[in-house]
Amino acid sequence: MAKQYVLRRSAFRSADITLPTSKSISNRLLLINVLCHSPYKPENISDSDDTRVMLKAVESDCSLVDVGAAGTSMRFLTAYLALLPGEHIITGSERMKQRPIGLLVDALRTLGADIQYVENEGFPPLKIVGKELQGGKVTLPGNVSSQYISALMMIAPMVKGGLYIELEGKINSRPYIAMTLATMKSYGVQGEWNDHTINIPEGRYTPVQNRVEADWSAASYWYEMAALCPQCKFHLIGLERESLQGDSAVRTIAENLGVKTEFCADGIIINKTKDTTAHFTYDFSSQPDLAQTFVVVCCLMDVKFNFTGLESLKIKETDRLGALIAELRKLGYVLSTNNIDALSWSGERTEPDNQPVINTYKDHRMAMAFMPAVAALPDMGITIDDPDVVSKSYPMFWRDMQSAGLAMDEKNI
Questions:
Q1: How far is Cα 214 from Cα 342, in angstroms, rounded to an integer?
Q2: Is 319 a catalytic residue?
Q3: Tell me, what DSSP letter sits at residue 43?
Q4: In the chain, which segments carry CATH 3.65.10.10?
Q5: CA–CA gap between residue 188 and residue 342 (Å, rounded)
Q6: Catalytic one among 49, 50, 289, 400?
Q7: 66-104 per-position pLDDT tens digit
Q8: The pLDDT of residue 190
Q9: What is the DSSP letter of 341?
Q10: CATH assignment of 3-20+214-412?
Q11: Which residues lie closer than 8 Å to 59 by C-beta, 6 or more apart?
Q12: CATH topology assigned to domain 23-200
């Protein structure tokens, strides 16, 4: 039976929130841990669906790996299984079977990987016969998902001769590449990144104990709430100033919406203290997972915007460009896009739906980005479809929002 949450007029209040830990860091640690046969388990790993999938896969000797909707796990495990002796099938949800993986497969094949498509060319599921790989040069477009690049980087020390990765054109999601390099360095492997080239020598990872920091992507929804609820202060526990995460840039991006960040002993305190910009222009190439948050909150705050660097949004859990346009129209906002890498709002409005139901498209970030609409539009009566999808990255999202005053009713349909 399907579920919906009907969000009601709420009296939001200040709250202390212990954020989930980063699934991006967790998944990198889990993969490198298994590559070096580490006796140490990473501390404080994410409880998200994506990390649960990754943990199950690296701890299992099953030849069939089902990653569900976990894109990071699909990319990372494809590279890992290419090295792991034996025959494996890796598959996922119906949406995962629509998400391209051909560029990664082609790169692995140039190293000698034995990978075949089980159904459609260029897409999962894959049949992989693990074997020793020969290193050398691989070339990828720089604007592809950074997960392809990170997957190759992390197996590079285990490849004979190491890897020289050349990135062509504009490079998106640079912070995720930097995160991978920093994580590898913590295990004793030093890669070199010179703009469009990444050189990683053959070598050995050294097992170490690592601890996962809190998730700045999850913090973004609290920044959205702070922007919409000027009477509230939110104490977000577990965030670090010197973070590996590119989404830590949310603290500077949110200044455009008047939200101030103050670091404290165990995290940050955020609240709205300044005026909001009238028109917001930003390139999200380095923080694509923050785009939905800022698209939604800008509309709710009547801030016109022009956002670029959104190339990867079309191949995420859903086509996020199309999803944002469709769901914001239900709230009365008419957005424009070039259907490639940009999304904008000039202030154009239309008649909103009566009692709008927000479709989440099995995308966790759609549910979380749209929830704060109840703070800006308390009389509209907003319903979130398939709310449990948040478990992909923030399992306690609804509980945490209720602790800040969110009122909602569960509805089975």
A1: 29
A2: no
A3: B
A4: 3-20+214-412, 23-200
A5: 39
A6: 289
A7: 999 888 999 999 999 999 999 999 999 998 999 999 999
A8: 94
A9: S
A10: 3.65.10.10
A11: none
A12: UDP-n-acetylglucosamine1-carboxyvinyl-transferase; Chain (3.65.10)
